[in-house]
Amino acid sequence: MSATDKKSKQAVIAGAGPAGLTGAYELLKHTDIHPVVFEESNEIGGISRTVRYHGNRMDIGGHRFFSKSQRVTDWWNEIMPLQGSPSLDDRLLHTTDKPFAPGGPDPETTDRVMLVRNRISRIFYLHKFFDYPISLKLQTFTNMGLVRTIEAGCGYLWSVFFKKPETSLENFYINRFGKPLYRMFFEDYTEKVWGVHPSKLGADWGAQRVKGLSVFAILKDMLKKSFSKKENIKEVETSLIEQFVYPKLGPGQLWETVADEVRRHGGEVITETPVKEIHIADNRVTHVTVEDARGRRDVPCDYLLSSLPLKDLVRSIRGIEVPDEVKRIAEGLPYRDFITVGLLMKKLAIDNQTKIKTFANRIPDTWIYIQERDVRIGRLQVFNNWSPYLVKDYENTVWIGLEYFCTEGDAFWQMSDKEFIDMAVGELAKIGIIDPADVLDSVRIKVKKAYPSYFGSYYELDRVKAFLDGIENLWCIGRNGQHRYNNMDHSMMTAMVAVDHIAAGNPDKSAVWSVNTEEEYHESK
Question: What are phi and psi of 231, to 5 degrees?
Fold first, then answer.
């Protein structure tokens, strides 16, 4: 990829998240089109950014870098190589992380590298830890107790022979785990995330995120590992992977690096400048209107790659009549918003009771799913375990993130920072994970439109897609750009496919919309 003095055409890209920045990088690499990225906020990376606070770094939502797409894997390695390991299979099967130097970074590594991390995620339920995905170990049954174990076994066998019609996410889970296990490990957490009972959510969310996960898949994985030390990464259900790669300074580091590369090779990445209007003539975008501190200005474009939320995209269209049905459906598309509380702790009130050796006997988890019914927290991240470099004083403090799901404007969203942080600290203390006296510092981060939701007018989305596809040079990419709960790699792939089609002069959008709907793309966070 090399910089050029003058590109013959220009692409405007709305949003500097994974999809938008991937699109800009790919355009520079494979076309003679000049990309200009406009980002509303002053941050790079969207929900995949890294938040800095008092010397510590926070990963918003937690991002495992793992993909079954070799193209995405190679792309990550091109931007931030992992030392001494050329292939994904080698990376995931051989941990190459070295011990960390006391009091600071490992002097043998550079900043722009990926680390290999062990994936350890557990469920906290009944004030006990359960493996996630649920394992069939003796400890699981001991924690559940005899009665719950018998009920779970009978419920699963019933689900094997008596399948429910998959008209809801609830039925989707019951068909794969049985009703008792669904009630224990999926029902409450799902409602926390979406604010809607799983019986009201579509089964296609499960098909997209956890299609391959079931009791049968867990048994199959256990048997494979019993007979073979090496596994084919592409055959492993994503929910069952045991290692992943991760940027040394968090996911935002990768996207900040990509933005730097785009600028270095002649592209533009402009923050604090949202796209406000999209002007159409003869079924093509002719220009967009952006707004910055100096006011509004028009920017011509030959192509528009949009990762704007679809409701915002439709609202911004000028020059053509948007059908009332399209407006109604777009306006009705639901989203789930997100709040993280970062707590800097002297220590946690729980110790490591696993066989995994950890520094100062801390718990080894990257994140913990909180299934307790009497608290609203959904998930807990331990940033020390994502990368020690996220923590300013790794040896003497534990840096954690408490994740809550809400809707913009609701009671959670409207609470003051102090009120919300006090509530969050009280919840973790209530379930025995921390002692409030050990809190050293705290911060609250809000994220709008973090999760496109699968209810409401979502099931009429095809009408919006058909209308937008009629605008020849408009390409909808990314999680919000397609209103699909994509993983980061899927968002990247939508941009890659869009650029492939632009480079080939192919105006067909169907392949871009099909990313993460076809069988080969199904994965789980």
Answer: -120, 150
